Amino acid sequence: MRRKRSSDSTDVAVSVPEGPVRAPSAGFPRGTILLIGLAAATVTAIGIGGIKGILAPVLLTLILSICAHPVRTGLEKRGVPHGLATGSVILVVFLLLAGFAYTLIIAFAQFVDMLPQYSDQFAEIGKSIGAWLQSIGISQKQVETVESSFDPSSIVNFFSGLLGSVFSITGALVIILTMLILMSADAVYVPTILRQLRPSRPDLVNALTGYATNVRRYMVVTTVLGAVQGALNTIALVIMGVPAALLWGLLAFLCSFIPNVGYFFALIPPIIFGFLVGGWPTVVAVIVVYGIINAVVQSIIQPRVVGNAVALSQTLTFFSVLFWAVIIGPIGAILAIPLTLMGRMVLIDANPSAQWISPAIGATAETRTIMKSDDAAKKQERQAKRGAHGASPPGDPEPDGE
Questions:
Q1: What are the pLDDT digits (tens) for 283-299?
Q2: Residue 191, Cβ neighbours under 10 Å: how many?
Q3: Contact call for residues 217 and 306 (beta carbons, < 8 A)
Q4: 96-114: burial string, b at 16+ Cβ within 10 Å, e else
Q5: What residues contact 222, with CB distance under 8 A and at least 6 apart?
Q6: What is the DSSP string of 358-400?
Q7: CA distances from 118 to 130, 251, 349 (A)
Q8: Cα separation of 45 and 173, whole Å?
Q9: 72: phi then psi, degrees, rounded to nearest 5
Q10: What share of the chain is helix, strand, coil (3-state, %, to 5)?
Q11: 2 three-class SS
């Protein structure tokens, strides 16, 4: 209790708490901030899903433009004018897309032509599955629905719908080509803009340049290895006599961009048609060949070449595939890694105060070094303990050598 003298010279008792005085905490509780952040992320995801028809081809064009940017820089270093370098980038990307689309159309046309040859076998498979479903108590109406799905026309409609959702056939191609021209033209200013920003926003510039480099390395390596993987699968399927081998090779190429689960999507159609032409021996051969090629390319070669360009944990990688596939469709599954790296770049890499969370989402280079050091220390400790137990106890007479 202290006394404070007021203006009329009278003493006024003022109660002062004992001990150090703590300032009231500023801001909101951590739990409230977390809930608000999750709510904002949910609203953002719903909004992105609402415009996926235009956003998916725009994001695809952005990634393609980033991958083709070295063509521009290489030409400009050799004295090529900006306009001609921009046209070269547009031409390279357009030729790649046109070549892939043309090959896909040819493969799909061959698939449609040969499918009626297996209509009787599909009908038998449908009846067998229907009989099994009836034996376990499934209603007749549901059984008929399942059997009708094995009609060749239903299979063609399924693949046609899948291709339509990926490319959107008309609108998406128009958006991709238009955005490709505009992005390539605007990319002329990117190096100068980054130099302007570096003095005031060095972390943002480093995050942007690092993102472009990592995405370019990942996409280029995955594209090359995916093309090799698709070619090897196509050759193996042709040797085994599996129909529509080129189409399944293209499917394997596309699915190579989908981590963890893409292999299984690429494997199902060859198994089905392999069973139709060769029975179970062909099915086993397809599984073995696909498994060996996938294991060598995606589990051994790709991690060594890509390195730390994709510093994402396995759990986050798998979740990103599911998340982006739900939000923007099949293109989201193909671009899951680049889009997740974009989110990491905006939220973490460009924000120095958020760097502490990097090891938790996959940047584990330092963590692995610490773990190796800890394992070495524990190993030395165990060896020391074994040495202590094996030594002679104190006081025991030493052997005299006789």
A1: 899 999 999 998 888 77
A2: 14
A3: yes
A4: ebeeeeeebeebbeebbee
A5: 256, 257, 302, 306
A6: HHHHT--HHHHHHHHHHHHHHHHHHHHHHHHHHSPPTTPPPP-
A7: 18, 21, 54
A8: 24
A9: -65, -50
A10: 80, 0, 20
A11: strand
Q: Which helix or strand (DSSP H or E) is residue 11 part of?
A: strand 11-14
| Residue at 349: amino acid letter | D
Residue/partner pairs of 291-294 with CB below 8 Å, 24 or more apart: 293/229, 293/232, 293/233, 293/236, 294/229, 294/263
Long-range pairs, 154-159, Cβ under 8 A, ≥24 = 155/115, 155/122, 156/112, 156/115, 159/108, 159/111
If you search the block for the tokens 């905006």, which residue do you land on? 346
User: Which of 221, 239, 233 has its CA nearest to residue 291?
Assistant: 233
Confirm whether pTM is higher than 0.85: no
Phi and psi at 24, nearest 5°, equal -65, 140
Can you read off the two tokens belonging to residue 46?
A: 């719903």
Output Rg (C-alpha) for the chain, integer angstroms. 31
Render pLDDT for 119-171 as a digit per residue (tens, 0 to 9). 777 777 777 777 777 777 777 777 667 666 666 666 666 665 555 544 455 67
Task: Please provide the distance, in angstroms rounded to a whole number, between the alpha carbons at the two ends of the chain.
Answer: 87
Task: Specify the 3-state DSSP secondary structure of 3.
Answer: strand
Q: Are 307 and 32 in contact (CB under 8 A)?
A: no
Q: Please write the tens of the pLDDT for every residue from 177-218.
A: 888 888 888 888 888 899 999 999 999 899 999 999 889 989
User: Residues, the chain, total?
Assistant: 402
Instruction: State how far the Cα of 295 lies from the Cα of 312, in Å rounded to an integer.
Output: 20
CA atoms of 205 and 125, how far apart (whole Å) = 58
The pair of three-digit structure tokens given for residue 215, joined into one six-digit string: 């995405």
